[in-house]
Design goal:
Blueprint: E1 3-7, E2 10-12, E3 18-25, E4 33-39, E5 46-51, E6 58-60, E7 68-73, E8 78-83, E9 92-99, E10 113-116, E11 120-124
Parallel strand pairs: 2-11
Antiparallel strand pairs: 1-3, 3-8, 4-5, 4-9, 5-6, 7-8, 9-10, 9-11
Length: 126
């Protein structure tokens, strides 16, 4: 069964940190650009960050630059999103996806995906 399994997330106070993980099962992520997306209540899904297949290129939405870091461990078939200095506006359900994109440039936010993670809730609140 081809799937991405997410872990991490939860409730954190403003200024806190969380790390999300996205582990592939049934296929190798080595050749896929992996993206992290989020969807807040009443809002459209937005692309947060992207990492190229070999990890040499990354892309961040302006809203998370300098606070979030995306990384991957291809040996473990896992991609991570380290989120620091979290703010209430970061509250959303976060999803990872193995994208049908050649790179993290251009329209990676709008391409289709081979697989999506199940989603994990991140809540930032005092």
């Amino acid at each position: 069964q081809l799937q991405l399994v997410q872990s991490g997330g939860g409730l954190v106070r403003p200024g806190g940190s969380l790390r999300l993980s996205c582990a592939a099962s049934g296929f190798s992520t080595d050749y896929y650009v992996i993206g992290w997306f989020r969807q807040a209540p009443g809002k459209e899904r937005e692309g947060v960050s992207c990492i190229s297949s070999r990890g040499g290129s990354t892309n961040y939405d302006d809203s998370v630059k300098g606070r979030f870091t995306i990384s991957r461990d291809n040996a473990k078939n896992t991609v991570f999103l380290q989120m620091n200095s979290l703010q209430p506006e970061d509250t959303a359900i976060y999803y990872c996806a193995a994208l049908w994109a050649p790179s993290c440039e251009g329209a990676w936010r709008h391409v289709g995906a081979r697989s999506w993670g199940q989603g994990t809730q991140v809540t930032v609140s005092s």
